[in-house]
């Protein structure tokens, strides 16, 4: 088991990071900390995809020196998914932070429990 874990340490680190982010998302009531937890989860998924797409002793799929054999190159799809995911993640993070700023301006707190109590008092 130890040798198998050592050869797959990237995947293990990705799962640990995902667990840290998920725990942070569930246990924190501060909105900024929840956003950080979601970003940690995103990063863990990107790390996992990058680890799964990597094949030892292969290079990026750019034809050089006339080598066209598929066995010489890695699969480019996980890399494309990671790049697309990073762009989407940045956009989602910006939207979450802007909504958090608006909530702070209205309720003067970032505590989600306090915001929900105030919403119930307002009747919304």
From TrEMBL:
The keyword Manganese does not apply. It is found in: Cell membrane. The keyword Transmembrane helix applies. It comes from the Bacteria. It is a multi-pass membrane protein. GO terms for cellular component: plasma membrane. Keywords: Cell membrane, Membrane, Transmembrane, Transmembrane helix. Its main location: membrane. It holds the Pfam family Oxidored_q2. The chain crosses the membrane at residues 6-27, 80-104. Belongs to the CPA3 antiporters (TC 2.A.63) subunit C family. This is Cation:proton antiporter. It comes from Parablautia intestinalis.
């Amino acid at each position: 088991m130890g040798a198998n874990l050592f050869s797959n340490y990237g995947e293990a680190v990705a799962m640990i990071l995902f667990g840290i982010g998920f725990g942070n998302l569930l246990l924190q009531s501060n909105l900024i900390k929840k956003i950080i937890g979601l970003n940690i989860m995103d990063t863990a998924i990107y790390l996992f995809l990058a680890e799964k797409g990597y094949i030892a002793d292969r290079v990026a799929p750019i034809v050089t020196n006339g080598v066209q054999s598929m066995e010489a190159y890695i699969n480019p799809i996980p890399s494309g998914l990671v790049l697309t995911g990073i762009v989407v993640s940045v956009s989602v993070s910006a939207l979450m932070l802007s909504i958090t700023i608006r909530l702070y301006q209205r309720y003067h707190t970032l505590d989600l429990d306090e915001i929900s109590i105030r919403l119930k008092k307002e009747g919304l």
